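Bench notes, afternoon.
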Amino acid sequence: MAFDIKLLDIVACPLCKGKLDFVKADNILICHFDKLVYPINDSIPVLLEEQATPLAQD
């Protein structure tokens, strides 16, 4: 079962309440404002601040 991208219309960053971007190749959600990466486990977004990792700066 894959992440349903229709969820992007209703999910938001728990910190800033902003839009999240889905990166299919890595199966993650990114908040560019807070520079955090949220994992997706078993097709379920884990939108907990303590589970987020900092967005790598390229």
